[in-house]
Model the fold of this input.
Amino acid sequence: MPTNPPDGVLRLAAVNTPEYSGLLDDLNAEFQRQSGWAVEVWSGEDVYERARAGNADIVISHYGHGGLQRFIEDGLGQWPLTVFSNQMALVGPAEDPACVRGLLDVVEAFRRIAATQSLYIFNRLQGAQYLMEIVREAAADLAWGTWYHDPGVRGNQAMDAAAELGAYAIWGAFPFLRYRQHNPAVNLEPLVLGDPLLQRMMVATVVRADAFPDAKVEAAGWFQQYLLTPATQARIRSFRVPGVEQALWWPAGRNNNPSVFPR
Done:
Protein backbone atom coordinates (compact mmCIF):
# COMPACT_ATOMS: atom_id res chain seq x y z
CA MET A 1 0.00 0.00 0.00
CA PRO A 2 1.28 3.48 -0.80
CA THR A 3 2.12 5.77 2.09
CA ASN A 4 1.46 9.48 1.75
CA PRO A 5 4.67 11.44 2.37
CA PRO A 6 4.53 14.11 5.06
CA ASP A 7 5.01 17.72 4.04
CA GLY A 8 8.65 18.64 3.61
CA VAL A 9 9.79 15.03 3.04
CA LEU A 10 10.86 13.75 -0.36
CA ARG A 11 10.88 9.97 -0.90
CA LEU A 12 13.87 8.69 -2.85
CA ALA A 13 14.19 5.06 -3.92
CA ALA A 14 17.80 4.30 -4.89
CA VAL A 15 19.80 1.23 -5.76
CA ASN A 16 22.28 0.19 -3.12
CA THR A 17 25.60 1.76 -4.06
CA PRO A 18 24.78 5.49 -3.83
CA GLU A 19 23.37 4.92 -0.35
CA TYR A 20 25.92 2.63 1.24
CA SER A 21 28.89 4.45 -0.28
CA GLY A 22 27.86 7.59 1.62
CA LEU A 23 27.29 9.69 -1.52
CA LEU A 24 23.58 10.23 -0.89
CA ASP A 25 24.15 11.28 2.72
CA ASP A 26 26.55 13.93 1.46
CA LEU A 27 24.30 15.19 -1.34
CA ASN A 28 21.02 15.02 0.58
CA ALA A 29 22.33 17.03 3.51
CA GLU A 30 23.23 19.91 1.21
CA PHE A 31 19.87 19.70 -0.59
CA GLN A 32 18.05 19.94 2.75
CA ARG A 33 20.20 22.91 3.74
CA GLN A 34 19.34 24.71 0.50
CA SER A 35 15.69 23.77 0.13
CA GLY A 36 14.39 22.85 3.58
CA TRP A 37 13.24 19.49 2.23
CA ALA A 38 14.38 16.30 3.94
CA VAL A 39 15.13 13.30 1.71
CA GLU A 40 13.90 9.94 2.97
CA VAL A 41 15.98 7.22 1.27
CA TRP A 42 14.86 3.67 0.65
CA SER A 43 17.71 1.56 -0.75
CA GLY A 44 17.47 -1.77 -2.59
CA GLU A 45 17.40 -3.33 -6.03
CA ASP A 46 13.62 -3.39 -6.67
CA VAL A 47 13.36 0.41 -6.78
CA TYR A 48 10.84 0.49 -9.62
CA GLU A 49 8.53 -1.95 -7.86
CA ARG A 50 8.59 0.40 -4.89
CA ALA A 51 7.81 3.35 -7.17
CA ARG A 52 4.98 1.39 -8.86
CA ALA A 53 3.47 0.86 -5.42
CA GLY A 54 3.32 4.63 -4.95
CA ASN A 55 6.10 4.79 -2.36
CA ALA A 56 8.65 6.96 -4.18
CA ASP A 57 8.69 10.45 -5.65
CA ILE A 58 12.00 9.99 -7.50
CA VAL A 59 14.12 6.96 -8.35
CA ILE A 60 17.87 6.65 -8.88
CA SER A 61 19.15 3.55 -10.64
CA HIS A 62 21.65 2.43 -13.21
CA TYR A 63 20.57 3.43 -16.71
CA GLY A 64 20.53 -0.26 -17.62
CA HIS A 65 18.31 -1.31 -14.70
CA GLY A 66 15.79 -3.88 -15.91
CA GLY A 67 12.79 -2.00 -14.48
CA LEU A 68 13.53 1.46 -15.89
CA GLN A 69 12.40 1.00 -19.48
CA ARG A 70 9.12 -0.66 -18.45
CA PHE A 71 8.48 2.08 -15.89
CA ILE A 72 8.78 4.76 -18.57
CA GLU A 73 6.89 2.83 -21.25
CA ASP A 74 4.03 2.21 -18.83
CA GLY A 75 3.64 5.97 -18.40
CA LEU A 76 4.73 5.99 -14.76
CA GLY A 77 7.90 8.07 -14.94
CA GLN A 78 9.21 11.20 -16.62
CA TRP A 79 12.23 11.01 -18.91
CA PRO A 80 15.28 9.82 -16.88
CA LEU A 81 18.18 12.25 -16.58
CA THR A 82 21.79 11.12 -16.19
CA VAL A 83 23.24 12.33 -12.89
CA PHE A 84 26.42 10.39 -12.04
CA SER A 85 28.35 7.19 -12.71
CA ASN A 86 29.86 4.60 -10.44
CA GLN A 87 32.15 1.94 -11.79
CA MET A 88 33.65 -1.46 -11.91
CA ALA A 89 37.25 -2.09 -10.89
CA LEU A 90 40.11 -4.36 -11.81
CA VAL A 91 41.19 -5.72 -8.44
CA GLY A 92 44.29 -7.71 -7.65
CA PRO A 93 46.87 -8.63 -5.05
CA ALA A 94 48.56 -5.80 -3.19
CA GLU A 95 51.93 -6.96 -4.57
CA ASP A 96 50.58 -6.26 -8.09
CA PRO A 97 52.92 -8.57 -10.06
CA ALA A 98 51.69 -7.20 -13.40
CA CYS A 99 52.32 -3.56 -12.35
CA VAL A 100 48.86 -2.32 -13.32
CA ARG A 101 48.15 -0.09 -10.29
CA GLY A 102 46.89 3.34 -11.31
CA LEU A 103 46.63 2.63 -15.05
CA LEU A 104 43.94 4.57 -16.91
CA ASP A 105 43.63 1.91 -19.63
CA VAL A 106 42.12 -1.44 -18.64
CA VAL A 107 43.14 -3.02 -21.96
CA GLU A 108 46.76 -2.12 -21.25
CA ALA A 109 46.32 -3.69 -17.83
CA PHE A 110 45.34 -6.97 -19.45
CA ARG A 111 48.32 -6.76 -21.77
CA ARG A 112 50.56 -6.53 -18.71
CA ILE A 113 48.73 -9.38 -16.96
CA ALA A 114 49.26 -11.56 -20.03
CA ALA A 115 52.89 -10.49 -20.48
CA THR A 116 53.75 -11.42 -16.90
CA GLN A 117 51.56 -14.54 -16.96
CA SER A 118 49.81 -13.32 -13.84
CA LEU A 119 46.59 -15.17 -13.05
CA TYR A 120 43.20 -13.65 -13.84
CA ILE A 121 39.90 -15.02 -12.49
CA PHE A 122 36.89 -14.61 -14.76
CA ASN A 123 33.86 -13.27 -12.83
CA ARG A 124 30.66 -14.70 -14.35
CA LEU A 125 28.44 -11.77 -13.36
CA GLN A 126 26.60 -10.45 -16.40
CA GLY A 127 28.08 -6.94 -16.37
CA ALA A 128 31.60 -8.25 -15.85
CA GLN A 129 31.16 -10.77 -18.67
CA TYR A 130 30.10 -8.06 -21.14
CA LEU A 131 33.00 -5.85 -20.10
CA MET A 132 35.42 -8.72 -20.65
CA GLU A 133 34.00 -9.31 -24.13
CA ILE A 134 34.81 -5.69 -24.98
CA VAL A 135 38.33 -6.06 -23.58
CA ARG A 136 38.86 -9.26 -25.57
CA GLU A 137 37.80 -7.49 -28.78
CA ALA A 138 40.08 -4.55 -28.02
CA ALA A 139 43.01 -6.85 -27.25
CA ALA A 140 42.34 -9.48 -29.90
CA ASP A 141 46.06 -9.94 -30.54
CA LEU A 142 46.66 -11.22 -27.00
CA ALA A 143 47.29 -14.89 -26.35
CA TRP A 144 44.46 -15.79 -23.97
CA GLY A 145 46.22 -18.73 -22.39
CA THR A 146 46.47 -20.44 -19.02
CA TRP A 147 46.79 -17.13 -17.16
CA TYR A 148 43.08 -16.55 -17.93
CA HIS A 149 41.14 -18.86 -15.63
CA ASP A 150 37.37 -19.46 -15.60
CA PRO A 151 36.40 -21.50 -12.54
CA GLY A 152 32.68 -20.91 -13.18
CA VAL A 153 32.11 -18.61 -10.18
CA ARG A 154 30.85 -15.09 -9.70
CA GLY A 155 30.63 -12.30 -7.14
CA ASN A 156 31.96 -13.20 -3.71
CA GLN A 157 33.07 -16.62 -4.90
CA ALA A 158 35.14 -15.05 -7.70
CA MET A 159 36.82 -12.81 -5.12
CA ASP A 160 37.45 -15.80 -2.87
CA ALA A 161 39.18 -17.56 -5.77
CA ALA A 162 41.24 -14.46 -6.65
CA ALA A 163 42.31 -14.03 -3.03
CA GLU A 164 43.27 -17.67 -2.66
CA LEU A 165 45.32 -17.72 -5.87
CA GLY A 166 46.76 -14.19 -5.72
CA ALA A 167 44.94 -13.34 -8.95
CA TYR A 168 43.30 -10.37 -10.66
CA ALA A 169 39.55 -10.08 -11.24
CA ILE A 170 36.88 -7.54 -12.24
CA TRP A 171 33.89 -6.61 -10.12
CA GLY A 172 31.88 -3.54 -9.18
CA ALA A 173 34.01 -1.24 -7.05
CA PHE A 174 31.43 -0.93 -4.26
CA PRO A 175 30.43 -4.60 -4.04
CA PHE A 176 34.15 -5.35 -3.85
CA LEU A 177 34.72 -2.82 -1.05
CA ARG A 178 31.79 -4.29 0.87
CA TYR A 179 33.24 -7.79 0.33
CA ARG A 180 36.61 -6.61 1.63
CA GLN A 181 34.96 -4.99 4.64
CA HIS A 182 33.54 -8.38 5.59
CA ASN A 183 36.81 -10.14 4.74
CA PRO A 184 39.51 -7.80 6.12
CA ALA A 185 42.29 -10.40 5.81
CA VAL A 186 41.86 -10.64 2.03
CA ASN A 187 44.96 -9.39 0.19
CA LEU A 188 43.14 -7.76 -2.72
CA GLU A 189 42.92 -4.08 -3.65
CA PRO A 190 41.18 -2.01 -6.35
CA LEU A 191 44.04 -1.28 -8.76
CA VAL A 192 42.57 0.04 -12.04
CA LEU A 193 39.68 2.49 -11.80
CA GLY A 194 40.30 5.39 -14.16
CA ASP A 195 39.25 3.94 -17.53
CA PRO A 196 35.82 5.31 -18.63
CA LEU A 197 35.07 1.82 -19.93
CA LEU A 198 34.64 0.81 -16.28
CA GLN A 199 32.00 3.44 -15.52
CA ARG A 200 28.29 2.62 -15.10
CA MET A 201 25.91 5.54 -15.60
CA MET A 202 23.03 6.27 -13.24
CA VAL A 203 19.86 8.25 -13.82
CA ALA A 204 17.26 10.08 -11.74
CA THR A 205 13.63 9.53 -12.76
CA VAL A 206 10.78 11.64 -11.37
CA VAL A 207 7.41 9.88 -11.21
CA ARG A 208 4.52 11.27 -13.24
CA ALA A 209 1.91 13.33 -11.44
CA ASP A 210 -0.95 11.85 -13.48
CA ALA A 211 0.06 8.34 -12.42
CA PHE A 212 0.78 9.22 -8.77
CA PRO A 213 -1.34 12.22 -7.73
CA ASP A 214 -0.14 12.09 -4.10
CA ALA A 215 3.56 12.15 -5.02
CA LYS A 216 5.73 15.18 -4.31
CA VAL A 217 6.48 15.62 -8.00
CA GLU A 218 7.43 19.31 -7.87
CA ALA A 219 9.91 18.73 -5.03
CA ALA A 220 11.28 15.68 -6.86
CA GLY A 221 11.91 17.92 -9.85
CA TRP A 222 13.79 20.36 -7.62
CA PHE A 223 15.94 17.53 -6.33
CA GLN A 224 16.65 16.30 -9.85
CA GLN A 225 17.69 19.81 -10.88
CA TYR A 226 19.82 20.11 -7.74
CA LEU A 227 21.73 16.98 -8.80
CA LEU A 228 22.46 18.63 -12.16
CA THR A 229 23.73 21.96 -10.86
CA PRO A 230 27.43 22.60 -11.53
CA ALA A 231 28.05 22.86 -7.78
CA THR A 232 26.54 19.42 -7.12
CA GLN A 233 28.30 17.87 -10.10
CA ALA A 234 31.58 19.25 -8.75
CA ARG A 235 30.69 17.86 -5.32
CA ILE A 236 30.19 14.42 -6.86
CA ARG A 237 33.55 14.70 -8.61
CA SER A 238 35.37 15.46 -5.37
CA PHE A 239 33.58 12.86 -3.22
CA ARG A 240 35.86 10.13 -1.87
CA VAL A 241 35.11 6.90 -0.06
CA PRO A 242 37.18 6.61 3.14
CA GLY A 243 40.28 4.52 2.53
CA VAL A 244 40.21 4.88 -1.26
CA GLU A 245 42.26 7.67 -2.84
CA GLN A 246 40.80 7.37 -6.33
CA ALA A 247 37.41 8.72 -7.37
CA LEU A 248 34.63 6.12 -7.41
CA TRP A 249 31.84 8.50 -8.45
CA TRP A 250 31.87 10.61 -11.59
CA PRO A 251 29.55 13.48 -12.59
CA ALA A 252 27.37 12.67 -15.60
CA GLY A 253 24.97 15.59 -15.79
CA ARG A 254 26.43 16.98 -18.99
CA ASN A 255 25.30 13.84 -20.87
CA ASN A 256 21.75 15.22 -20.86
CA ASN A 257 20.12 17.40 -23.46
CA PRO A 258 21.30 20.96 -22.68
CA SER A 259 17.66 22.07 -22.46
CA VAL A 260 17.39 20.37 -19.06
CA PHE A 261 20.48 22.00 -17.56
CA PRO A 262 19.73 24.20 -14.52
CA ARG A 263 19.30 27.86 -15.40
